[in-house]
């Protein structure tokens, strides 16, 4: 959990951090999460997050951060996780005593589920199937909510709780996402879920920005009253509650703005206009974009835009990113990025008509696995094109074919999603491989647009 105090011109004035695994060892997490008893189950004890909040604010104050100057507060949290408030928890939230730690008041009894499912939990394939079937199929689910049913998404997770722990579900007065839970602590009341994070639940009608009755019915009974009405990601929910005024000297007029999920926050935090395409070159390659209309693409995710009322956010994740680049680097350049780049730079754009697609792992879009290499003699419609060539003549050609192929693939799917490439297009590159100038050059060539790197002001 990180807390950052920003000046009006967005410079970092102070920051503090709590590492769940080492600062809160009593919760025995690895990477901030615990594996559940069954396959694909992952959970967090919500009190860990509450305790982290106590600590992170204390640490911020120890940095001599003057919290009495804070005009507004908001937050970003992992998408998809859900918390189930008990009646007692909500009344404790309404009457926080500034003389006591938060975690002494929002303790286990504040929740009806103490092993709360988080984004990593992928144990709900059965519920996904049931929900999609109930509303008429996968296409309907995509049309309505922007994504097909995913096991990590909150709707299927809620359904699993309803099915397996019916009494707990019945006792849950309200359900929060991790982001709206964070806002709830500051507000001293259960905070509304925002449209963008709400789009990661398979429950929100992303066009009308209301909970879809069909999806709610397919999920669990009396769910709309447990979720409350969703709001804009920039909605002011109210003033910070007295607890934070008394204990940390926030001004009583400090506004609490709806919190949202990590992906929408990443797009919002880039502070870029709609002609920008964000390309994150991490373990996977991820593309983020603003869209005028939700596309008709079954794969990928479409969310309500976190900062623009009538726009949408497109999110594409490709599994075969850095890990494939690393593997080819190892094979052709002894694992040295320097050699890799020398080889890459020694071939011209277009690679003499040689191109490859490497889906070493089953790719997400398209669902395909394997490697295909083509040279310029290959006719796309010929039976040979389905087999390709076995290998290229040199490491130089191999390496350029890999990177150009990856970027052509990314560009093609981004266009399918509805992103329009044109003279105004700009690319923002982030993630581990964005340090690699030669790869960035290929992105600029293939996307036919200038590429920028994000600079973090610290
Ligand atoms: P994540 O946040 O997804 O864990 P990062 O954004 O930290 O990943 O990126 C890690 C990846 O960056 C590694 O898989 C590594 O292959 C890649 N990487 C690091 N340096 C370079 C480089 N100079 N050229 C290309 N790729 C690089």
UniProtKB/TrEMBL annotation:
InterPro entries noted in UniProt: ATPase_NBD, D-XK_euk, FGGY_C, FGGY_N
Q: Please give one Gene Ontology molecular function term for this protein.
A: D-xylulokinase activity
Membrane-traversing stretches: none
Q: Can you tell me which family this protein belongs to? A: Belongs to the FGGY kinase family.
Can you say what this protein is called?
Xylulose kinase
Domain Carbohydrate kinase FGGY N-terminal: residue ranges: 113-269
Q: According to the UniProt record, what class of enzyme is this?
A: transferase
**Residues forming coiled coils:** none
UniProt KW keywords: ATP-binding, Carbohydrate metabolism, Kinase, Nucleotide-binding, Transferase, Xylose metabolism
**Xref: Pfam families:** FGGY_C, FGGY_N
Taxonomic lineage per UniProt?
A: Eukaryota, Metazoa, Ecdysozoa, Arthropoda, Hexapoda
Q: Which GO terms describe its cellular component?
A: cytosol
Q: Which residues belong to any copy of the Carbohydrate kinase FGGY C-terminal domain? A: 278-452
Q: Name one GO biological process term.
A: xylulose metabolic process
State the function annotated in the UniProt record: Phosphorylates D-xylulose to produce D-xylulose 5-phosphate, a molecule that may play an important role in the regulation of glucose metabolism and lipogenesis.
Chemical reaction(s) catalysed: D-xylulose + ATP = D-xylulose 5-phosphate + ADP + H(+)
Organism of derivation: Drosophila grimshawi
């Amino acid at each position: 959990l990180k807390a950052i105090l920003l000046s009006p011109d967005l410079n970092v004035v102070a920051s503090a951090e709590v590492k769940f695994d080492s600062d809160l060892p009593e919760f025995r997490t690895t990477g901030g999460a615990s594996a559940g008893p069954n396959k694909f189950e992952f959970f967090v004890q919500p009190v860990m997050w509450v305790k982290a909040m106590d600590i992170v604010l204390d640490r911020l104050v120890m940095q001599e951060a003057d919290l009495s100057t804070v005009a507004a507060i908001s937050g970003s949290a992992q998408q998809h996780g859900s918390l189930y408030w008990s009646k007692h928890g909500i009344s404790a939230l309404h009457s926080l005593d500034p003389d006591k730690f938060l975690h002494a008041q929002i303790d286990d009894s504040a929740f009806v589920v103490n092993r709360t499912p988080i984004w990593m939990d992928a144990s709900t394939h059965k519920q996904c199937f049931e929900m999609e079937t109930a509303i008429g199929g996968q296409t309907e689910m995509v049309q309505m909510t922007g994504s097909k049913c995913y096991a990590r998404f909150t709707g299927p997770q809620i359904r699993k709780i309803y099915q397996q722990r019916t009494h707990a579900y019945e006792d849950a007065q309200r359900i929060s996402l991790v982001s709206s839970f964070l806002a709830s602590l500051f507000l001293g009341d259960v905070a509304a879920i925002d449209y963008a994070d709400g789009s990661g639940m398979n429950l929100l009608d992303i066009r009308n920005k209301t909970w879809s009755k069909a999806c709610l019915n397919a999920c669990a009974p009396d769910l709309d009253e447990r979720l409350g009405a969703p709001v804009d990601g920039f909605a002011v929910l109210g003033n910070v509650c007295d607890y934070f005024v008394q204990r940390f000297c926030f001004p009583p007029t400090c506004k609490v703005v709806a919190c949202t999920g990590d992906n929408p926050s990443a797009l919002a935090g880039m502070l870029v206009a709609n002609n920008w395409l964000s390309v994150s070159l991490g373990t996977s390659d991820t593309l983020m974009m603003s869209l005028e209309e939700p596309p008709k693409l079954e794969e990928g995710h479409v969310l309500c835009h976190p900062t623009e009322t009538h726009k949408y956010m497109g999110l594409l994740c490709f599994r075969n990113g850095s890990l494939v680049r690393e593997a080819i680097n190892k094979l052709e350049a002894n694992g040295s990025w320097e050699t890799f780049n020398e080889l890459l730079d020694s071939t011209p754009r277009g690679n003499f008509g040689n191109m490859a697609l490497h889906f070493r792992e089953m790719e997400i879009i398209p669902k395909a696995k394997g490697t295909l290499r083509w040279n310029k003699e290959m006719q796309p419609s010929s039976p040979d094109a389905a087999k390709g060539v076995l290998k290229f003549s040199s490491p130089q050609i191999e390496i350029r074919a890999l990177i150009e192929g990856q970027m052509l693939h990314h560009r093609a799917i981004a266009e399918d999603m509805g992103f329009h490439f044109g003279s105004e297009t700009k690319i923002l590159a982030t993630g581990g491989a964005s340090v690699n100038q030669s790869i960035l050059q290929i992105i600029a060539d293939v996307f036919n647009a200038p590429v920028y790197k994000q600079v973090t002001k610290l």
